[in-house]
Design a protein that fits this description.
transcription; about 230 residues; HTH-type_TetR-like_transc_reg; Homeodomain-like_sf; 11 helices; elongated; TetR/AcrR family transcriptional regulator; about 70% helix; mainly alpha; MT1864/Rv1816-like_C
Amino acid sequence: MTTVRGARARARIEITAAIKDEARTQLAAEGAAKLSLRAVARELGMVSSALYRYFPSRDDLLTALIVDAYDAVGAAAEQAAADTAAQRPLARWTAVCRAVRAWAVAHPHEYALIYGSPVPGYTAPQDTIAPAARVGLVLIDITRRAHDGEGVALPPLPDDLRPEAERIAADIAPDLPPALAVALVAAWSQLFGLVSFEVFGQFHRVVEDRDTFFATAARRLGQDVGLLPRV
């Protein structure tokens, strides 16, 4: 009986993966708004009722794809941080940013699913929150280690921004100064702005050497947060 249950579990994993793969193919061809469970089932040679046992609705399938995408870019960021653990904070920050960009360029349709236009009629559930935070948490951790270690150059904090800065710090990094928390949120948003400009074509005929441009911009973001360029 255990063997039968194991075989069924493996089959479910394989079919779930096949459904997601076909859905990603549809995302690339038609976009998220046109994703259809019936079309996925048809391409896989399944009846719709069988597919519904794996994903009861289009939104359930979209959520699975969104979580996978966030987890993939988060894993890329975490791996870059681990690979550069012996390096100084600014170098680690830049490596993480470059890993995020590399994943996005290699997976533009999955990137568009999580950082492009909202899908009409879809509201992301709580399940997506933790995966979506993975890249940000890596950047926070690098900054925290720098703050506790070699130190950081605290960015200026205007008086009128202090209440909001204190609220942000309480939410994302209560152990860090509010000025750092604000700088981290600004850098996080600018990182994905840079990536989005490249993935969605806004750099066309503007930036040619995109590797060097991005590395320089990412390093500058780290310095804006307060990471020191040298000891």
